[in-house]
Amino acid sequence: ETFFWLGFTFSAIITTLLGLGVFGYAKQVKSILIGFTQLPFLKRYRESAESTGNELITTSQLYRKKPFKFWLKLIGITLGSWTFKFCVVNLLVTAFGDVIGLEQFTVFSKVLVMWVIMLIPITPGASGVAELTFMALFCKYVNPGIIATVSFSWRLFTYFPYLILGSIIAPR
């Protein structure tokens, strides 16, 4: 529960700052970011905060010019992508476990909790933490003998494609 609330709070703060920055208050958010670097343990990130603030200002200027149709398409694609990522667990747990009826909503809710918890770890893609969290949250539904395999399958469908595509696209 603590990890969930830490992740949720951190995510809410970052999302709010980015949203405010992109949609109207980029200079103020840049000032906040630079202000954080006044803390002794964050001083080394001052250049990075300034660079991020400058990028936020540029992004804000570019996005203000986008038509309403652009935003509708972007929202639709994002909702589709995240819904797919969340529903993969429901499909796997249904295929390899024992989930019936309205329990699908419980599984979906646990997926939301799991994604918030995955915001906290510092490992790339929350590796290790994600799999352990998956096994802890869904062991009720899947046979303990195959839960690790189901967890790996989940990562295979929702994480590794991004790594593969990223390794192809990013170098270009």
Question: Could you characterize what this model shows?
Answer:
74% of the residues lie in helices and 0% in strands. It contains eight helices and no strands. The chain has helices at residues 2-22, 26-36, 46-64, 68-96, 103-117, 129-138, 147-158, 160-169. It is globular, with a radius of gyration of 19 Å.
State the order of secondary-structure elements, H for helix, E for strand.
HHHHHHHH
Q: Major sheet: size, sense and barrel closure?
A: none
Q: How many strand elements?
A: 0
Shape: globular
Question: Which radius of gyration do the C-alpha atoms yield?
Answer: 19 Å
Helix content: over 70%
Number of helices: 8
Query: Approximately how much beta-strand content do the residues carry?
Result: under 5%
* Unreliable spans: none
**What's the average pLDDT?**
86
Secondary-structure-derived class: mainly alpha
Kindly, what is the distance between the CA atoms of the first and last residues, rounded to a whole number of angstroms? 41 Å
Secondary structure layout:
Blueprint: H1 2-22, H2 26-36, H3 46-64, H4 68-96, H5 103-117, H6 129-138, H7 147-158, H8 160-169
Helix pairs in contact: 1-2, 1-5, 2-3, 4-5, 4-7, 5-6, 6-7
